[in-house]
């Protein structure tokens, strides 16, 4: 069985899945950047004391699993979302949903995802893909980071849907609960609410290690890494930062470019120079994140490595924190025309 | 970032799929551009794997020296910490820590060994011998 569904490639798995699941009912209007922005996807956090893969726990986007939910909620689209304790139940619910003609979003772990290159397979459980049919023992898979649709056997799919560890998917699946068309008015109101939520997350969230404060905090930490960890481990930490920032699924510049694209597209629905000005600021932030990544690479490649080099790296983050603070303040004070 | 500046350094992912980047065209409008990879992040991933390979080699030596059971080797090989392995096998973390001792591991029942083998995606004899062949 195969559902009428068109695979679309995206930069980020969750905003890509969201955009693809809403493609039909929005007539393709909910693009990836719109899904990312309406879902308030942009974030920064450096969780102290926890380690991930023996390195710092840093994220450039909001908690996995929120974007689909938040985007649909803001658009007024009901959501079917389920987790399972039983693998059999997870499988039969998936098949029922497919039989009813729904492409289904699934949260999966990457470690045993067979079509991924080995180098990218870590125990990362917040990947998302769409199942859009089944032929013999093979499920038809639309993974938004892949250029083309692919397949997984039922064993392979079950294994990744029930991957274990932090943020274990527990078979989670989700899809829009009805097929009512999304209007431009709904999109306009969702854009406003998405921006408001993201402003709060970056400017006002409690905790010194999250939002724009978290970027500054990380800049400070980096300046101390060389003394605290030694040059070798400090290099590993920087490499981890760069991977979270640039690796597959970010669209480049730690998701800042996707957000800049979102603000431009928001301007198509709610013309406002403030949106365009903020968009330029996020482009600038994204560029600076990439400049910082080049500096970091100099260190983990062993080309540079003095304390002064770490200070330069830390200062980049201070500068970025200032730009993003300004950009979100501009958005906070935006006067909507309609 | 401008569209023409999107890096095209071939990565191991780039051989399988190119990835979408957001970049601006000549009018400043955001468009998507496919990238083969970027040297800066290829190296970041290489650095991470060199570290992991070092940990695997060290664990293997510890097992050969009879200082640890093969579980240590497989935990490093499969990038698993105690909590991930506990989740996959259903054992408690303290049990796994005990099973890291060679003398305890050598007395494990077939049922328990099978649980570990399944978690590591290997056969029981491979689990004991550390002799794994993968593509």
Could you give the order of strands across the largest sheet of chain B? 1-2
Strand content of chain A: 5-15%
Structural class of chain B: mainly alpha
- Count of helical segments of chain A? 10
Amino-to-carboxy terminus distance of chain A? 46 Å
Radius of gyration of chain A: 20 Å
Q: Helix count of chain B, per DSSP?
A: 7
Please summarize the sheet with the most strands of chain A: 6 strands, antiparallel
**Radius of gyration of chain B, in angstroms, nearest whole number:** 21 Å
SSE pattern of chain A: HHEEHEHEEEEHEHHHHH
Major sheet description of chain B: 2 strands, antiparallel
Q: How helical, in percent, are the residues of chain A? A: 40-55%
Number of domains of chain A: 2
Which structural class matches the secondary elements of chain A?
alpha+beta
Based on CA inertia axes, which overall geometry of chain B fits? elongated
Arithmetic mean pLDDT of chain B: 93
Strand content of chain B: 5-15%
Biggest contact: A-B, 53 and 38 residues
Quantity of strands of chain A, as a count = 8
Spell out the blueprint of helices and strands:
The complex is a heterodimer of chains A (338) and B (135).
Chain A: H1 13-21, H2 32-38, E1 42-52, E2 55-61, H3 66-75, E3 79-82, H4 87-99, E4 104-108, E5 127-135, E6 138-142, E7 150-153, H5 154-161, E8 173-176, H6 184-204, H7 211-246, H8 256-269, H9 273-300, H10 307-332
Antiparallel strand pairs in A: 1-2, 3-8, 4-5, 4-8, 5-6, 6-7
Helix pairs in contact in A: 1-2, 2-3, 2-8, 3-6, 6-10, 7-9, 7-10, 8-9, 9-10
Chain B: E1 19-24, E2 30-35, H1 39-64, H2 70-77, H3 82-89, H4 93-99, H5 102-105, H6 110-120, H7 124-129
Antiparallel strand pairs in B: 1-2
Helix pairs in contact in B: 1-2
């Amino acid at each position: 069985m195969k559902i009428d569904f068109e695979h679309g490639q995206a930069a980020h798995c969750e905003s890509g899945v969201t955009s693809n699941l809403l493609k039909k009912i929005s007539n393709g209007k909910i693009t990836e950047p719109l899904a990312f922005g309406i879902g308030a996807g942009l974030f920064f956090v450096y969780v102290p004391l926890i380690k991930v893969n023996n390195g710092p726990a840093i994220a450039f986007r909001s908690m996995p699993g929120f974007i689909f939910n938040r985007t649909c909620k803001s658009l007024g689209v009901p959501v079917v979302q389920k987790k399972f304790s039983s693998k059999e139940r997870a499988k039969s619910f998936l098949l029922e949903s497919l039989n009813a003609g729904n492409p289904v979003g699934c949260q999966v772990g990457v470690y045993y995802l067979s079509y991924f290159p080995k180098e990218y397979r870590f125990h990362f459980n917040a990947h998302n893909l769409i199942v859009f049919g089944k032929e013999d023992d093979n499920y038809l898979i639309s993974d938004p980071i892949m250029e083309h649709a692919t397949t997984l056997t039922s064993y392979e799919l079950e294994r990744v849907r029930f991957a274990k560890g932090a943020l274990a998917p527990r078979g989670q699946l989700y899809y829009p609960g009805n097929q009512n068309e999304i209007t431009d008015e709904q999109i306009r109101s969702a854009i406003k609410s998405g921006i408001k939520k993201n402003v709060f997350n970056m400017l006002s969230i409690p905790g010194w290690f999250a939002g724009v404060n978290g970027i500054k905090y990380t800049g400070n930490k980096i300046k101390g890494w060389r003394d605290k960890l030694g040059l070798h481990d400090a290099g590993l930490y920087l490499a981890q930062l760069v991977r979270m920032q640039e690796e597959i699924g970010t669209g480049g510049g730690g998701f800042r470019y996707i957000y800049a694209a979102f603000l431009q597209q928001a301007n198509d629905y709610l013309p406002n120079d403030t949106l365009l000005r903020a968009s330029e600021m996020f482009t600038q932030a994204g560029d600076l994140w990439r400049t910082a990544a080049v500096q970091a690479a100099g260190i983990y490649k062993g080309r540079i490595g003095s304390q002064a080099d770490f200070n330069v790296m830390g200062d980049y983050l201070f500068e970025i924190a200032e730009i993003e603070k300004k950009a979100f303040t501009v958005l906070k004070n935006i006067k909507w025309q309609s | 970032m401008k569209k023409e500046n999107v890096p095209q350094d071939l990565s191991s992912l780039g051989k399988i799929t190119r990835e979408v980047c957001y970049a601006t065209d000549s009018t400043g409008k955001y468009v998507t551009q496919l990238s083969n990879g970027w040297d800066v992040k290829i190296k970041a991933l290489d650095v991470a794997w060199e570290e992991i390979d070092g940990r695997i080699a060290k664990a293997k030596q510890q097992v050969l020296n009879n200082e640890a059971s093969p579980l240590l080797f497989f935990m490093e090989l499969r990038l698993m910490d105690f909590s991930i392995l506990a989740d996959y096998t259903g054992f408690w973390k303290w049990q796994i820590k005990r099973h890291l001792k060679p003398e305890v591991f050598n007395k494990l029942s077939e049922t328990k060994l099978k649980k570990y083998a399944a978690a590591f995606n290997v056969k029981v004899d491979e689990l004991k011998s550390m002799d794994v062949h993968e593509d």
